[in-house]
Amino acid sequence: MNSQIEKGQPDGKAKRADATRAALIKAAERLIAEKGLAAVSTREILQEANQRNQSALQYHFGSKDGLMRATISERTKQIDERRLELMKDWTETSNMDEVLKVLVLPLAELAEQEIGGRHYILFLCQAITQPDWDLRQAIKDFELTGLGRAYEIYDELLADLPEEARVVRQEIAYDVAILALKRWCIREMDLTPKQITKLIIHAAKAILEPPK
To answer: Who wins on pLDDT, 38 or 56?
Structure first.
């Protein structure tokens, strides 16, 4: 038996499969960011990923929707690591500014660090418009520890609101944050990730405050 396999190292076939999967995710992220979800066909994704095998997408993801979920999963896990890092300094009295910073800043940082991060923001703008989009379900499905903890505190800080009112405000604030990051990416505004995050926090707090 090959010594690499005995040591638990992936063989050539597994490596090729991983490479194909990564190429399809990257291609989908870029094309959907540029053209929109409805305008991108599976054939285009395969061509962009340099995949001659027309069944590659179905084999790895089942469907275009499955590919979308995989794309979100890959990025959210990466972003969640940064969220956990930011939360290390939290105290038992964490405030709304700290929670919103954890939700927004990692996305802004990723968009500044790599073109793929910008593509993901634009991709996410498409994802949140889908009828079955559910961030809380995504937290469970993708086991996002950092985002899950942040939302626990987020809920506690808005505990005075009726549940439906709280959830609606949180959803609107999230959508506004993603759209604001999209504008920041497209227009290449002269703002750092921390600065755009501060602006988004200010806008989100106005949405989240109970009516007086």
So the answer is: 56
Which residue, among 62, 72, 92, has the nearest Cα to 28 in the 3D structure? 72
**Domain range enclosing 169:** 71-208
The answer to the question of residue 37 being in a domain is no
Q: Are 73 and 142 in contact (CB under 8 A)?
A: yes
User: pLDDT grade, residue 10 (50/70/90)?
Assistant: low
Could you tell me if residue 135 is inside a domain? Answer: yes
CATH code of the domain containing 102: 1.10.357
In a domain, 29, yes or no: no
pTM: 0.79
Question: How many structural domains comprise the chain?
Answer: 1
pLDDT at 84: 94
> Tokens 């638990």 label which residue?
8
Q: Which residues contact 86 (CB under 8 A, 6 or more apart)?
A: 101, 102, 105, 106
